[in-house]
Write a structure and sequence with these properties.
Length: 331
C-alpha cells in the first residue's frame, strides 16, 4: 500500500523526518503550519513538499479530501495542557484548530490512519476525551502512549502523549485498554552524550553570569552522561526547567567547585566566580537536534538565530519515537 500523508502543525518537519526514517512506502503530500519562521526551516529541508502557510481552520473537509490523502500526522499546540499554559484545556483558543479538525473528521472519509503527539497532561484533558469519542464514532481503533526518548535508546527525557489510530482494522501488536508506557522493541541503554557533541567553537554558548547566579538549579551533563533533560522553547533564555547544560569538567571537579560556591550566598559575585571556572555551556542547536533524533542531513538555514532554533526545537518532536510509532501504525 502507498501511504499519502497530510502533515498538520508541521513545524520544522520532525514528523517528515520520521516518515523518511521509517522507509514506509508513501509520501508527504502536503504540510500545513501558520508559523512563518518554522515554515522557512521546513522548506529549507524539504523544498519539494507542498507547504501551506495556512490556519488549519481554513482547510475545509472538501479541500482535504481533494488532496487524496489517507494519513494525518499532527502535533497540535500543547500550551493549553501545560502548567505554564494555565491548563485552560478546551477553553483555550489555541485548541480551536484541533477541535475544528475533530469536528470534521467524520467527513474525511479518505483518512484511514492518524498519529497525534502532544504534551503529557493531554491525556487528562477534556479535549482528549472529545478526540477519543470522535475516533470511536468514526470506527477507528486507537492506542495511546506516554513515551520518553530514553525508552528508545536516546539520552533525553521528553515525556509526551501519543495516539495512533487506524480505521476498521486491528493491530499487529499487543495493545492495552489504558495508556502504554513502553514499546516492545528492546533498545538497550541510551548512548552517551559524547557522541552528539559538536567539534566547533562553543565559547559563544557559555552560560552567562546572569544565569550562573542561579547555578544551584542547573542540570549538568558530562561526556559520559546517558541522560539529559527536556529542552523547551525557552532554552538559553531561562534556566529553570528548560534543559540541561554541559561541561567538559569531570563530576569530581564540579563537586569541588559547587562545594566552594555554596560557602557563599547563592547569586553573589563570589558564587558566580566559583562556577565560571567550570565553563558551563548550553547545548548547541545542532546538538539539541541530535538529542531529538533529527537526521544528520537536517540543517537550519544560516539566517536562523540560535534563539529561533531553540524556540522551534522546543515545539518539535522526537524523530525516533515517531518513527517507531509509524511502524506500529502501518504494520
Amino acid at each position: 500500500m502507498f501511504y499519502k500523508t497530510l502533515e498538520l502543525y508541521s513545524g520544522i518537519g520532525g514528523m517528515h523526518c520520521a516518515w523518511n526514517e521509517s522507509k514506509l512506502p508513501g509520501e508527504i503530500v502536503a504540510a500545513v503550519d501558520i508559523n512563518t519562521v518554522a515554515n522557512k526551516v521546513y522548506a529549507h529541508n524539504f523544498p519539494q513538499t507542498n507547504l501551506l502557510n495556512r490556519n488549519i481552520q481554513s482547510l475545509s473537509a472538501r479541500e482535504i479530501n481533494k488532496l487524496n490523502v489517507n494519513t494525518i500526522l499532527m502535533s497540535p499546540p500543547c500550551q493549553p495542557f501545560t502548567r505554564n499554559g494555565k491548563y485552560l484545556d478546551e477553553n483555550d483558543s489555541r485548541t480551536n484548530s484541533f477541535q475544528y479538525l475533530i469536528s470534521i473528521l467524520k467527513k474525511l472519509e479518505c483518512i484511514e490512519y492518524i498519529l497525534m503527539e502532544n504534551v503529557k497532561g493531554f491525556e487528562c484533558s477534556s479535549v482528549r476525551d472529545i478526540f477519543i469519542d470522535k475516533l470511536k464514532e468514526c470506527k477507528f481503533n486507537y492506542q495511546e502512549f506516554l513515551l520518553s526518548p530514553s525508552t528508545v535508546g536516546v539520552p533525553n527525557s521528553r515525556l509526551r502523549y501519543y495516539c495512533i489510530a487506524r480505521r476498521n482494522s486491528t493491530w499487529n501488536f499487543k495493545t492495552k485498554d489504558g495508556i502504554m508506557d513502553t514499546l516492545s522493541t528492546n533498545y538497550g541503554e541510551p548512548y552517551s552524550i559524547e557522541t552528539i557533541l559538536e567539534n566547533c567553537q562553543t565559547d559563544k554558548f557559555l552560560v552567562p553570569d546572569k544565569h550562573l547566579k542561579r547555578g544551584n538549579i542547573f542540570d549538568i551533563c558530562y561526556r559520559n552522561s546517558r541522560r539529559s533533560c527536556c529542552f523547551t522553547k525557552a532554552y538559553s533564555n531561562y534556566v529553570e526547567g528548560t534543559g540541561s547544560v554541559f561541561t567538559e569538567a569531570s563530576p569530581e571537579i564540579v563537586k569541588i567547585c559547587y562545594e566552594k560556591a555554596n560557602t557563599f550566598k547563592v547569586g553573589s559575585a563570589e558564587f558566580v566566580d566559583c562556577l565560571r571556572d567550570l565553563k558551563l555551556r548550553f547545548f548547541t542547536p545542532n546538538e539539541v537536534l541530535s538529542l531529538m533524533s533529527f537526521p544528520k542531513y537536517y540543517t537550519f538555514p544560516k539566517n536562523t538565530s540560535n534563539k529561533q532554533c531553540y524556540r522551534l526545537l522546543g515545539n518539535s518532536v522526537n524523530v525516533t519515537i515517531i518513527c517507531e510509532l509509524l511502524k506500529l501504525l502501518f504494520d
